[in-house]
Amino acid sequence: MTSKKKTFDKESNQYVSALQVAKRAGVSRSAVSRAFTPGASVSAKKREKILEAAEALGYQVNDLARGLLARKSRLVGLVVTNPELGYRSHLVAALTKALIHRGSVPIVINTGRTEEELTAAQKTLFGYRAEATIILSGSPPSSFVELASRNGQPLIVLGRSETGADDVNIDNEGAGRAAARFFLDNGLKNLAFAATVVRTPTTIEREFGFRDEAEKNGATVLSGEGTNSDYQGGQAAARKLFGGSTRPDAVFCVNDLVAFGLIDYIRHNTTLSIPEDVSVIGFDDIPEASWDAYNLTTFRQDAAIMAQHAVSLLEKREADPARPPAHERLATSLILRGSTRLPANRS
């Protein structure tokens, strides 16, 4: 009996099959199947022979084929735009870890924001009989939700609400209001919101809470926008906010990447100091926010907690497909660091 394992048989250009295991163990093909099926009837002696043969050959059960026969592939699609950027990269990592832990097989679909791109993702996921879909960004077309419903496929949306789908979101408006109150408590009333020209539901909610809370308390709110909500977008927003005679003394950024770009622009292109002249608040609390280079005050959005809630909704939906859509809102906390001065009553 050789100790060399070969899950993939180079001679036949195929993976080691159950039939090869059966021949080596001197049993039937069905016996091999039963040996790898929990609760199936097979004698202890025969199971031992089969497992020894499988170990020697490097055989692995074809979970994909088994799942398709059972009409449950265990594949879970993660539909996301630019999964490598900022908070999304940490959320994708947390989701894949949580899904693998529950026995699912995550598939990341890197797509865009248009209906055509999301529809292409839809066809891929339904074509491979994905068990469920989790959308991290973009707006799923109504046909996506309708087709998921007709096929009994759970659809979880993160960061926005969608009629007919379960969703998990952060209290974005509440965070915006908290950012405004923090600045106001510090006597700052020339405020700004740095974001992107593309208005997502998340951006709209954060800006509304911030602007409404600030303006009803007598503050002014300028707008600085970049093309995307990333580092370059933060640089572009800073050029608009600090390139003229009127400048803010406090900026709430839609996310940490925008805040990083804005902070670096201020440091390298103006004579202003942070936080003495300008206070900056970000959103997400990605690891780089705590680096000495930024020391950013920001709202923490815990990717692991978000992933846990998404997986919990998936399991509840599978257990009770007819249950009404769930809309979960997670609280966030402001992490104080050196990019802001403390309010007078907290110094």
Automatic annotation (TrEMBL):
Pfam family, one: LacI
Keyword check for Transcription: yes
Keyword DNA-binding: yes
Residue ranges annotated for the HTH lacI-type domain, each copy included: 16-70
CDD domains: HTH_LacI, PBP1_LacI-like
UniProt-listed InterPro entries: HTH_LacI, LacI/GalR-like_sensor, Lambda_DNA-bd_dom_sf, Peripla_BP_I
SMART domains referenced in this protein's UniProt entry, alphabetically: HTH_LACI
Keywords: DNA-binding, Repressor, Transcription, Transcription regulation
Superkingdom: Bacteria
GO MF term (any one): DNA binding
Protein name: DNA-binding LacI/PurR family transcriptional regulator
